[in-house]
Sequence to fold (922 residues):
Amino acid sequence: MFSKDIYVSRRKKLAESLKRGFYLFLGNSEASFNYTDNQYLFRQDSTFLYYFGLDAPDLAAIIDVDNGKQIIFGNDVDLADIIWMGPQPTIAEQAAEVGVTETYPLCKLADFVKEAMAKDRRVHYLPPYRNLAKMQINQLLDIPFEYIKEHSSTEFIKAVVAMRLIKEPCEIAEIDKACDLGYTMHLTAMKMMKLGMVEQELVGIMEGIARTGYSVSFPIILSQHGETLHNHKHDAILEDGRLCVIDAGVELASHYASDHTRTIPTGGRFTEQQKEVYTIVSTAQDFALQKVRPGITYTEVHLDVARIILQGLKNIGLVKGDLDEAVQMGAQALFMPHGLGHHMGLDVHDMENLGENYVGYDEDHVRSKQFGLSSLRMGNVLRPGHVITDEPGIYFIPALIDKWKAEGTCKDFINFDALDKYRSFGGIRIEDDFLVTDKGCRLLGHKRLPHTVEEVEKEMN
Amino acid sequence: MFSKDIYVSRRKKLAESLKRGFYLFLGNSEASFNYTDNQYLFRQDSTFLYYFGLDAPDLAAIIDVDNGKQIIFGNDVDLADIIWMGPQPTIAEQAAEVGVTETYPLCKLADFVKEAMAKDRRVHYLPPYRNLAKMQINQLLDIPFEYIKEHSSTEFIKAVVAMRLIKEPCEIAEIDKACDLGYTMHLTAMKMMKLGMVEQELVGIMEGIARTGYSVSFPIILSQHGETLHNHKHDAILEDGRLCVIDAGVELASHYASDHTRTIPTGGRFTEQQKEVYTIVSTAQDFALQKVRPGITYTEVHLDVARIILQGLKNIGLVKGDLDEAVQMGAQALFMPHGLGHHMGLDVHDMENLGENYVGYDEDHVRSKQFGLSSLRMGNVLRPGHVITDEPGIYFIPALIDKWKAEGTCKDFINFDALDKYRSFGGIRIEDDFLVTDKGCRLLGHKRLPHTVEEVEKEMN
Fold:
């Protein structure tokens, strides 16, 4: 938790930007694993954390701008709870820590909401992503489930996004720390990888390190079949000659995230074919960092990176034709069907729950519908204080290659026959996190993970 | 997953025991962490796993006993999914692995349910513990949320409980394996514990080991304030002279659980005061294992253990008076406010979602209302094939001591003044898992964790 002033000032700024209205903040509750009382690790809602700081289940809050009220709702514990959970501060004491002086038991929230509705005031809420929040909104506001998302408040979303997108110094310090623990986690995996290990063993080691902070920031992707982009199976035995994609981040107790990817040779040495493709990706990833500066859009960076990748693939005979035209037609998406990166902060995909198009796009920058570019999570103008990932990749996905070949997609730019000897190659992705500064950007975290072929091989041998 | 025959035979046995009716099995879906697509580790519903074996989200099944039908519902993946998740077997292929030949897309479930309802047939379902399942039942069966639990099917619950309580050899083999990994996890913590560590570091190491199986079977309890029974905070720095309670289990990929507790001195050596109390608990824990045999109730074992504990505490001057009377009055609950143990299997508290009183009690054995004994999760007759935990403890909980002293509770049996020098003692719990056999019981797992004062000190030094 940050100092009280941070939360007071954030709420003040939010209220000023909203000007008027009644705003509902639902904290998260515990989530059940295999029965009610066996619970997943608690995760507070990020927007609730951002404005109210309290990291405990079953809380809610309102900001009533018109009446100048800020209230936290929650229940104090009783003696039975103290026996099982230890002494706990009261809700009033907890609220005081974040500068809120008015508190009520959770059941009183309904009274405030119903009073506002009785006066024909709109109760603004953010789109819920947990089923319990949907049930709460359904019951509090009497909105049928199928309308809950569309009735969420665009003004509220935009005001929150505008603030959370620009990271404060206290937030950047936390993200630096998260990246430092992420560095340790990835470096440990590099050092401990051995042929014959089951992937899951490395996942366990990495998650153990993340848990010394708080948690992984998302389920670890670790696979010698990196061509499967979101592979969460880890049952393969590491075989010689494969590339292992490791995409993993940590979340600290403050809930700020890191997100790094490294692709490393299972046996510690890249083959010549792997080196060629790896170097294209590492060059493209570095290129993006040089290109980034305030005022440019991330779509521009993404497309420039795409061109670098196509140029590299042309050099090794997999791509042909005019590269500007190839980029325009989206030929790169055969190799990199995802976007170059995303905002990161309290969420590893920051504010994805509020709607990616509000976070990463705006009136002037609309998401493309082209395969590949449509997966770019952010296309708007970069500004100082943005925290973003830079994660290009090259994958050889047999199902996608076969589809494009059969359909003749981008046949003027792809040497489909030459791809045959890459069908079991797998995939490569390299990812770091950066902060947009006044003049360009800086990598987050105090050390950069091994990045080039030479650096990776040195670390592993 | 076990062999097809196991699932076929379980469903046959269930259908025979139910005789008639229409039974709905809802599998679990993904659960969101901080936005929809950032998900907790997937956990299938245990009853779905037990009868249908398929360990994937968004599945459902029905057994229509009257019409001899067994159907699995789920959706096949499309090309977009294959790119992101890799090639997947079809639902029909997956169902065939567990001996089910009829499958439909998930949306067809509603047709079958509505057809049954249209014929005035009751749709039996189990009490849901996840909000999505509540929403599904609300929508499929048109039952208001507040009635969902009470409208769940007692016949269905009882038939499932009767089968799952008696573990099959293939299940016992998995639980043995889970206990073996649990052994490694606890032993590693014992070896790595050092003064000055933050508790969370040990938690990370242990969770990392659990993750090489699948997961922890419940959130790790690890605290030098063991008097807080369900303490999930791990922010304390390990100080010399404390006892650290570590209650942790693993869950394998088969989802069978282990659950062990050890209480170890932070600095590797017990004080004399700690040795005295520890020895009472370890003796009581061993005593329970000697006492267990088919035909006895776990309430009897619990109360005999309570007497052993009170006798030990009387020997060191904390308890006085007639011990039989003290047990009857529940004096032991000041020191051990919880029950001696619980069933364990696919859930660490097995089938807690179906209702503890159906699992641990029956018509002839009703749960006590006395403080302490009311927390005993099982009081029914032990039978061969039961898998149960044995976990007595002694805690000095200042809030509870003060309450009993002020109220005069059990004042004839407790030397409240003598408790003063135990106020900062903390707590001790020791737990192993056992199988009820034809003649008695056997510990699960191939090695027993260090158990006596001598064994623990030897391991830590």
In short: The domain at 169-460 of chain A is CATH 3.90.230.10 (Creatine Amidinohydrolase). Chain A has a mean pLDDT of 96. The two ends of chain A are 41 Å apart (CA to CA).
